[in-house]
Design the sequence.
């Protein structure tokens, strides 16, 4: 039983690890790098959306904050990307803790509404530039966040490096692929352990029956706030990874279209399943890349997919998979 | 100098406060009766502005007729989205999260359809009335005066509907006690749809008034929606009509005062910080009498 459950994830990891040896096209590697980063964002969004049942509209804002803080620290202050990655994750953790603690005291609704306001405030601030860049970078009138052009449009954000090899998605894809893959696997494993621990069970209990969970001694405020800030921690980590691998961060990563896509991925993959959103990220992000020619219809198609998932099959892809599995089992037993 | 500043601040407070009121009253009305926050409300705003733009600029219809056509169109939009989409989820007793996600989907479908038809370029509605009016030192355009009058009129009509008609009484009954209203024979599903339709009328007219004032893009409703949400949380969900009104004007006053004296890109983060501090001091909202 135990080995059969381990088989599927280990096989997937093995295939992904060996993939660069088969000499795939650069497009596929680039797509997979993006899938790992966005998949990490979607999985961490699933922590708050699926396991807690709270709509954190500002989740992508935390992703962008991770990207911008990491980019600003390494570009303007010359700090190593490995350190800024940790720093930006911790900063998003603290910000998530602050916002959730303050708003959850009022109500769950206040949390959703204020996170929406947080997201649009942050987008506005990023678009307007946020003041002059420090030091010699501000000479030419460059702004702190780079405005609508994006941070790193003039001088790219410094890449990760090991010794003298630089790791960047634009220059050498294979190390970038491995870095994204390893961070993705480690973070997914950490989240998997979290949701299966007593802590994750407490969160699910709070979602399903709040008053019963409270009567069993679970403090709703602290548990919820810490769970949300762990999810924003991983979002900030993914943002930092994105910034250093891509070299440029624009305000479009928190645009309306991107929010709809990410939200659709979490919903379509199945709320509260963790692996569902990861699989859906692969499917839907490849879909959006192939739909790029139909740019105007893309958003409508994605939003309609999401709406129909909600109305017709609310458990999403994960629910579909388990239904399929039980159906096969039943048929197999009958023939045997 | 000070007098001029003061008059500018007062006028813009009144104008943007009225727009926020149109949004917030609709949002709280839906929340009180059906218990969800409508994330599609921003797209109703956009719909109102673009609908009037299409009728007056492309079809060359008289302005007044376009406004009269806007009201039934807005009602139908809200009615359909509640009766045929959200109601399915309400019947299934879906969680709050699923309802919010569904409204979010509806909003993004409406906005992307608008983007598809009209494109993303900045557009601007013409003023219905040109010209200025003078109050001593201060000048005020007729359009801003129209915003004040129209929003006041709409609110008065709404209060009359809520408190004087049979439908309004039914609506308030559902807000108080859903099960009992089923028992006395109120068609609850229909009343839900009517509630959303009415609040869509408020939002669409707000969108039209705002579309004359600012440049409009397919996503310009989102910014106003986020301010509406801030006002909802700050004023408190249980504050009622009076509390929401006060909170909208208070928020508009703080915003315009900050806009007057600080660089523009700093204002939204400062406002957000003020909201967080306000929530720290009084989590249940500033215009709600403390229950503790």
Sequence:
């Amino acid at each position: 039983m135990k080995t059969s459950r381990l088989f599927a994830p280990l096989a997937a990891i093995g295939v992904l690890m060996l993939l660069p040896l088969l000499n795939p096209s650069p497009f596929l590697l680039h797509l997979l790098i993006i899938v790992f980063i966005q998949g990490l964002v979607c999985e961490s969004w699933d922590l708050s959306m699926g396991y807690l049942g709270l709509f954190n509209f500002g989740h992508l804002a935390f992703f962008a904050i991770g990207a911008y803080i990491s980019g600003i620290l390494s570009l303007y202050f010359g700090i190593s990307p490995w350190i800024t990655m940790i720093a930006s994750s911790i900063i998003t953790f603290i910000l998530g803790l602050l916002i959730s603690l303050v708003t959850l005291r009022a109500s769950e609704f206040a949390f959703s509404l204020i996170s929406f306001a947080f997201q649009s405030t942050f987008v506005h601030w990023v678009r307007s530039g946020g003041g002059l860049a420090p030091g010699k970078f501000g000479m030419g009138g460059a702004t702190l966040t780079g405005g609508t052009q994006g941070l790193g449009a003039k001088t790219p954000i410094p890449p990760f490096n090991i010794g003298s090899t630089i790791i960047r998605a634009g220059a050498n894809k294979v190390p970038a692929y491995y870095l994204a893959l390893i961070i993705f696997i480690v973070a997914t494993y950490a989240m998997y352990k979290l949701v299966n621990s007593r802590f994750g069970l407490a969160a699910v209990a709070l979602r399903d029956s709040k008053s019963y969970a409270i009567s069993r001694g679970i403090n709703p405020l602290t548990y919820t706030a810490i769970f949300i800030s762990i999810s924003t921690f991983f979002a900030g980590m993914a943002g930092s990874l994105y910034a250093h691998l891509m070299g440029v961060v624009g305000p479009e990563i928190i645009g309306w279209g991107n929010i709809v896509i990410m939200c659709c991925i979490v919903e379509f993959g199945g709320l509260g399943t963790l692996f569902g959103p990861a699989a859906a990220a692969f499917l839907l992000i490849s879909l959006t890349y192939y739909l790029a020619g139909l740019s105007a219809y893309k958003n409508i198609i994605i939003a309609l997919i999401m709406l129909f998932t909600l109305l017709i099959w609310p458990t999403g892809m994960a629910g579909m998979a388990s239904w399929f599995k039980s159906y096969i089992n039943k048929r197999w037993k009958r023939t045997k | 100098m000070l007098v001029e500043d003061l008059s500018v601040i007062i006028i813009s407070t009144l104008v943007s406060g009225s727009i926020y009121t149109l949004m917030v009253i609709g949002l709280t009305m839906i929340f009180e009766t059906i218990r969800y926050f409508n994330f599609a409300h921003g797209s109703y705003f956009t719909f109102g502005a673009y609908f009037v733009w299409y009728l007056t600029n492309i079809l060359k219809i008289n302005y007044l007729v376009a406004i009269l056509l806007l009201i039934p169109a807005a009602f139908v939009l809200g009615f359909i989205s509640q009766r045929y989409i959200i109601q399915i989820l309400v019947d299934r007793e879906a969680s709050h999260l699923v309802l919010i996600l569904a409204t979010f989907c509806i909003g993004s479908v409406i906005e992307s359809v608008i983007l598809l038809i009209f494109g993303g370029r900045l557009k601007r509605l013409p003023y219905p009335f040109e010209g200025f009016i003078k109050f001593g030192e201060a000048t005020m355009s007729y359009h801003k005066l129209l915003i004040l009058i129209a929003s006041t009129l709409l609110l008065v009509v709404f209060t009359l509907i809520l408190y004087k008609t049979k439908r309004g009484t039914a609506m308030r009954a559902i807000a108080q006690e859903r099960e009992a209203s089923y028992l006395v024979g109120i068609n609850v599903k229909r009343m839900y749809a009517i509630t959303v339709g009415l609040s869509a009328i408020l939002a669409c007219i707000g969108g039209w008034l705002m579309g004359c004032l600012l440049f409009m893009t397919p996503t310009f409703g989102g910014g106003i929606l986020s301010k509406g949400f801030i006002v909802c949380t700050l004023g408190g969900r249980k504050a009622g009509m009076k509390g929401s009104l006060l909170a909208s004007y208070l928020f508009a006053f703080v915003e315009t005062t900050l806009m007057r004296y600080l660089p523009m890109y700093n204002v939204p983060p400062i406002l957000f910080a003020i909201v967080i501090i306000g929530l720290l001091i009084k989590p249940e909202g500033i215009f709600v009498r403390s229950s503790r």
Q: What stands out?
A: The longest strand of chain B covers residues 132-135. The CA atoms of residues 284 and 290 of chain B lie 8 Å apart. Chain B has a mean pLDDT of 89. The beta strands of chain B are 132-135, 138-141.
